[in-house]
């Protein structure tokens, strides 16, 4: 489990180490009456993550020194109910190009693949 929170106006993001992948979490600009960027990344298994976040955008990368690329295999919305993940819609096409969270906290499940 990895957590992160924006610490002020000059904090633009954080590099998260997620096992065999890295993720660059970039915070949205500060706006009046809106929450700061923050979140939690839970590793289910290698390459599969649950992300609960707000006001942040993710870019996934391979580890430094690896001559590979990363693709999102599966990207789905969800909700936690009584300790169980209830799947929402499965995102596809251009929806998978950016993993972005708005000012309302949301839960997403991401499955990554290296090639």
Would you write up a description of this structure?
- This protein is mainly beta and about 120 residues long.
- The protein is built from no helices and ten strands.
- The strands form two sheets. It has a six-stranded antiparallel β-sheet with strand order 1-4-5-10-7-8, with no helix packed on it.
- The mean pLDDT is about 90.
Physical arrangement of strands within the biggest beta sheet: 1-4-5-10-7-8
Largest beta sheet, briefly? 6 strands, antiparallel
Tell me the helix content. under 10%
> Approximately how much beta-strand content do the residues carry?
over 45%
Roughly what is the average pLDDT, rounded to an integer? 92
Q: Termini, distance in Å?
A: 25 Å
> Secondary-structure element sequence?
EEEEEEEEEE
Low-confidence stretches: none
Would you report the number of β strands?
10
Separate helix tally: 0
SS-based structural class? mainly beta
